[in-house]
Amino acid sequence: MGVFVAIEGLDGVGKTTVVQQLAERFSGHALSTPGRALRDSRKPVLEAFAEDELAKALFYTASVSSQGRLAHSLAERGEWVFVDRYWASTLAYAKARGVTADLDQLGRSLIQPDLTILLILDEPERQRRLHKRGATIEDIETLDPKFRQCVLEELRAHANLIVNLSFQEPQAACSIIAQAIRDQF
Asked: Residues 74, 42, 97, 12: is their CA dihedral positive or negative?
């Protein structure tokens, strides 16, 4: 049996890099939400739902459902699957944006990862990375301390494992995470 690992964290902590490196290290698959098929439609969908945070959350939830089914299928075939953002991020960001619908109930119907890892990073370094890559509107909202705290609290509540990447080179960070995963399985 394979393993489905969700990698969660704030924008700029290195999730994408870690997911790609873990997929290589474990000869597995690197997925993300929204998935590749939705990347081109993401911006127009979010613009169309500009004033409706619940609609945005449901768009991301649809992506989580789709990618979760794919991840589960691959894991059932005995493969390792690493997903860059999954349900915890969708829920955390929706709550921080003021969505009051019972998304927790909806989340129980989604495929659950075998392990959810929260990546954290020294805040000045995270902000430096955001500015270096050209911060998006979504990135910028995490600069607000109240918003960031709300997201982090929700992410922590859903994480099985928290890994601090502060002051770690990417390869070293990946090694630490890979060992933590091996320790779990």
From this structure: positive
Ranges 7-21, 26-40, 63-77, 139-153: which has the least confidence: 26-40
Give the torsion sign (CA, 42, 93, 18, 14): positive
In whole angstroms, give the CA distance from residue 11 to residue 13: 6
Per-residue tokens: 172: 């070293």
Distances in Å between the Cα of 70 and the Cα atoms of 25, 30, 67, 74, 82 are 20, 11, 5, 6, 11
Fold (CATH) for 3-184 = Rossmann fold (3.40.50)
Measured CA to CA, the distance from residue 116 to residue 43 in angstroms comes to: 27
On the CB side of 153, CA atoms within 13 Å amount to 9
Report the predicted TM-score, pTM, of the whole model to 2 decimal places.
0.93
- Minimal CA–CA distance to 160: which of 107, 112, 106? 112
CA distance linking residue 62 with residue 51, whole number of Å = 19
Element (H, E) at 21: helix 15-25
pLDDT at 35 over 80: no
Q: Which is nearest to 121 in space by CA: 181, 163, 176? A: 163
